[in-house]
Amino acid sequence: MNNCFIVEGKKSITEFLESDYDLIKLFSVDRSFFSKIENQVNIDNSLLKRISFLINPDDHVAIFKLNDVKPIDNNNLIVALESISDPGNLGTIIRNCEWFGVKDVICSKDSVDCFNPKVIQSAMGSVSRINITYLDLCSYLKSSKTIKIGTSLNGKSIYKHHKSFDNGILVFGNEANGISSDLFNLMDYNFSIPRFHNNKFPESLNLASSLGIILSEIRRKSI
Amino acid sequence: MNNCFIVEGKKSITEFLESDYDLIKLFSVDRSFFSKIENQVNIDNSLLKRISFLINPDDHVAIFKLNDVKPIDNNNLIVALESISDPGNLGTIIRNCEWFGVKDVICSKDSVDCFNPKVIQSAMGSVSRINITYLDLCSYLKSSKTIKIGTSLNGKSIYKHHKSFDNGILVFGNEANGISSDLFNLMDYNFSIPRFHNNKFPESLNLASSLGIILSEIRRKSI
Q: Residue A95: what pLDDT?
């Protein structure tokens, strides 16, 4: 089946049902939890285990229809991700973005699919509310007139920048390689989170945690 | 084999070899990368796939000996974790702790094992340098005279606290349930990271990201 994706877990399914995504079918071992949902099919536990991506499936597997792409709102802070490969990282990033009021996440076309079941699972429902757009990131950044905020291991300390950013594009690179030089040359700022000791380890922070810390730093300056 | 643990990946193995953990045996498809390590056994790819925990094994699997427990240094900031269940989360937390200069991580006895291969993998070598102690967390906190800093969804905004903590025990609870009431009653502070919008979603931030943000906030105040 094309143009659809799977959501598992009562909480995530509930949040997608409350969003503007349309349910195609809900497969349930026990219909009582979603008793008001008509578009529901009873299945047994052995079928649930076959169609679920989880080791311990949670009684329900829902199939939703993909929505059409929505326009990006350039008046708010946008997060752009280059070549993100780990689905757990992407899900956590989308959840962190929602917490800090980011409404648009842009991904380069070679990033992991945001409708991958592991992304949906680690985003805890946030995929249903964040506008996620896959595009040619280099062309987009070249054509955009918004401020571009890069992040790397060798930038200016984020703690020493005292302005907030009400809009702008905050760019994070691939987990292992960071932002590519092509994109890096387009940045107006280059920020780092400094280590609080003099050793060389760990080499880097986890990507989703870094993004959470940078978003927290940007938002706290607006308080 | 008891009292030992597995490390995979060239980077992590290199960092454990540089630490005070003793190598028991290094299994290698290609001996050239660790050519100076004598305690090495050649294996072929099919055996590597059988002994590795990774989907794409990285040529080497090392077995190290567990060290004796070391004393906790109460003069520095300590991170304490209650009932952490996700190994990826624990690994990322240990890595974040090292970045922000935390040397001791304390885990309640029902937390996931820090020598679980998934913890070692997501900690990226930090397990080799951080002192991790499993103990009865409630008894420990009751007997400790150090400041206890709790975190929850309903605490005081961390952005409104303007002092750093050079020492103290920063406590985080289980991914789904937070800090138990028994421990919570022992806290001197209760901090939250506020959402930057008025919706109720997402219900929470990812645990490792929250810990990174709180550590960043504590440390930035000491600059």
A: 97
Whole-complex ipTM: 0.94
Domain B77-220 homologous superfamily, CATH: SPOUT methyltransferase, trefoil knot domain (3.40.1280.10)
CATH superfamily, region A4-65:
Ribosomal protein L30/S12 (3.30.1330.30)
Whether B206 sits inside 8 A of A129 (CB atoms) is no
Q: For residue range B6-56, what is the model confidence (pLDDT) as tens digits?
A: 999 999 999 999 999 999 999 999 999 999 999 999 999 999 999 999 888
Tell me the DSSP string of B169-201: EEEE-BTTTBS-HHHHTT-SEEEE---SSSS--
Rounded Cα–Cα distance for residues B24 and B67 (Å):
12
Cross-chain residue pair B99–A205, CB shorter than 8 Å: yes
Where do runs of H (alpha helix) occur along B77-124? Answer: 87-99, 117-123
Cβ-based contacts of B161 with chain A (< 8 Å): none
Kindly report the nearest CA distance between residue B211 and chain A, in angstroms. Answer: 8
A129/chain B closest Cα distance in angstroms? 9
To the nearest whole Å, the CA of B139 is away from the closest chain A CA by: 30
User: Which candidate from B124, B125, B213 shows the least CB-CB separation from A213?
Assistant: B213
CA-nearest of B5, B2, B44, B46 to B23 is B5
* Domains in chain B: boundaries: 4-65, 77-220
